[in-house]
Input
Amino acid sequence: MAGPRTIHLTVNGAPREGWVEPRKLLVDFIREDLGLTGTHVGCEHGICGACTVLVNGEAARSCLMLAVQAAGAEVLTVEGLARDGTLHPLQEAFWEHHGLQCGFCTPGMLLTACDFLKDNPSPTEAEIREALSAVLCRCTGYQGIIKAVQAAAPKLRDAR
Amino acid sequence: MEALTPKLVGARVKRLEDRRLLTGQGSYVDDFRPPGLLHAAFLRSPHAHARIVRLDPAAARALPGVAAVATGAEIARLTRPVRALSKMKEYRVTSFPPLALGKVRFAGEAVAAVVAASRYVAEDGLDRILVDYEPLPAVSHMEAAMGAGAALLHEETGSNLLLAREFATGDVDSAIAGAAVVVRERFRFRRHTAVCLENRGCLAEYHEGTGLLTLRSATQCPGLVRDILADLLDLPEHRIRVIAADVGGGFGAKSSLYPEEITVAALALWLRRPVKWISDRREDLLATSQAWDEIVEAELALGADGTIVGLRAEVTADVGAYSIYPWTAAIEPVQTISFLPGPYRVPHYRAHARGVTTCKAPMGPYRGVGRPVAAFVMEGLMDRAARLLGLDPTELRLRNFIRPEDFPYKSPSGIVWDRAGFTETMLRARETLGYEAARAEQAQARAEGRWIGVGFASYVELTGIGSAIPVSPGMPVATGTEAATVRVDPSGTVTAIFGIASHGQGLETSLAQVVAEEMGLPLEHVRVVHGDTALSPYGTGTYASRSAVLAGGAGILAGRAVREKAFTIAAHLLEADPADLVVNGGRVAVRGTPDRGVTFREIANAAYSGARRLPRGMEPGLEATRFYDPYFGTASSATHAAIVEVDRETYEVTIRRYVVVEDCGRIINPLIVEGQVHGGVVQGAGAALLEEVVYDGAGQLLTGTLMDYLVPAATLVPTMEVHHVETPSPTALGGFRGMGEGGTIGAPAAIANAVADALSPLGIEVSELPITPERLFRAMPDSGGADRGSRA
Ligand code: FES
Ligand code: FES
Output
């Protein structure tokens, strides 16, 4: 087994350094080494989407990536969404429209929606459902989540 | 005295717990890593049924980073095996060891545990444990398991039949023999699992200095877990603290005691180090409790006018390898026959249930417990009867509902329905759907050759169960009470502490609404604490749709007691008559003279100042603990309506519309109630169309990933239309009824009925769930699928 190595990356805007075994998953690195426990693990085989973070601006499943693969990358986790105590419009909309119950899928949902609205700023309901079917939620039946994304879309458009 | 604060109960309040969850600041079990933490991984049996001939952990123990390897024999020295007891006459008690002892009874059963510096190393350790198994014949089929010559799973019982129970009222055989119409069917509801998005997990720490064992667990029932751990580990109960902080969904599957919780606690005691185990999804699908898996043979008899005269049923359930604590293996099948008659007047009834042990993960409670199967069967029979009688299915239901003048109504299985709006929910559902128009559109679509169907399901469930009956039939563990402590600190803010544990239901918000309203305080003055046995008065946890009713009732009583004392103090300070006082926004004043008042802060301050500022003889302090027991429990009900289309090419079922009209009594927070309905319906839709745990004949799990076990994504169910009929519960304090499970009870039945309606021109009935495209294909008259897809 190859020994640990040093990696450098940017997480939520701040430079971070890690000393990791090559087999360590990115999600474990984020949660254990960086202490950012907002990113969750729901299946560790790429289906549930709970572990979704943005890597260089694109949604990625951090359970399917090794930490060493993120060397040099820019990573955004749920902890980086709010700015100076002000919630991101998606976070506000999830709150307003009851887009979460247990909250376990929420970080992955938020980051997936964030990535999706960047590519499709004025989506239809069907497009939102299609895009968010990448993340499983067992609690909400998705209705509040869909409403929240619909409500956040114009706010994010205006903010651009 | 009265509260003038704007109504909080009934208000669409945004949830108080959301901010932390939205910003990644939640505290789920896996988020904790105390210093010195060790990580556990479990070795799981690859065999369904086998004797353990040899287990050699030496190589694993030698691996650098491994702190310990525990085998079944070692854990057995530290704990007792779990024995879920029952008062049921025909129930055979069996043992569930935390780690297998001598033999394994299902693929996935924990055999040994490795504890190491990291989970990675612990899993490396698993690879080095040598186990020799001597395979035994797998018991994989519930009907075969009862046959002569079937291998015995639990030698101590002498039979694979773990339980049997019957309910009988009247003379059903004569009623059926004399009836104008009898419909019968063999229904099959396949095995299911909860798939909480957060897998199970726990973290145990033993503090030698204080002798305190703390177990953090992703559990719904911290109180129940503490009670039994004291017994199993032989520790004084006040030295055990169980904490369930944020929990990522439960749905019943996290309400039972699990072997891993016992093992991890025992390991922490043994090693004097904190030990954590977090299930991965494979372990979850292998070893978390599963649900349903019943065969129901049922007959419904009616008069020529459609009046029900009798119902007879035989239920056989595959309860898996072990009887789960505390609910026992009886929970699913006996609940099914308890609730089979539904919201209807059924004068003659006999139903018999059996639970059979096989080599599968244990059966446990899952959202709805028994009632999703009961509703699927009863509502399926109602539709068959309507077709036979040429009656409209909604009309047949309206003719048979328990009527307002019948309440309180004692069901033929002995359950008492306090009052419910069965008829109103049906009428509102028809109206919301635009029933006539929906039928006209269906006729039009049929003429175009499309398969469109409309389906209804009405159900009633018992929620907020008090001490009159156990939550699970026959269970000796008491579940009929909950308590609240309402504590006002000297600054006038309130901490309300409950023994329940919220795992997504928003109880931090809804209970704060209840307490704040009772006390006349603004919502933000009340903080709810739950899920921690060291902080709360005694309670068991959140399950069986009980927390709004039991914890809500306890919160009202405790809040009321504190408010009364606060008023007495205020009257003393203001030199007024308590009867003349009103409270508004945290200020108590004399009615009509708002200037003559004191704030809650001043009252609280006085309460802790002692004799100088209190009425003569009054005990200082401002807090109260109250227990609440609703005794029977209260009926919660709904009518669901679905419009579906079956694709003629692919046999895929698309849900076009979904309507729910529910009656959960007085609503605390419509936002939360609707969220619970939405989530429940989608789980029910998953059960109807997608979700199925599959084992092969050798007892191997074939659905071990989320690619094989399909849970609904955002595309399965369109926007649901949810409406409320509010029939306040006449028995439960506050008028609340529980409603966390109902969505999942109604949806499988409504969708099954809609699909059957779509296919009725072809003469196809739906008797098996989930309705997969393959099953529909096999059911088609020209498919050549001779067995019509209903292999048991
Ligand atoms: S944990 Fe990564 S997709 Fe499920
Ligand atoms: S809120 Fe619980 S899984 Fe989505």
Q: What stands out?
A: Residues A 100-106, 137-140; B 197, 248-249, 504 surround FE2/S2 (inorganic) cluster (ligand 2) (CB under 6 Å). Residues 9 and 70 of chain A are 7 Å apart (CA to CA). Chain A has a mean pLDDT of 97.
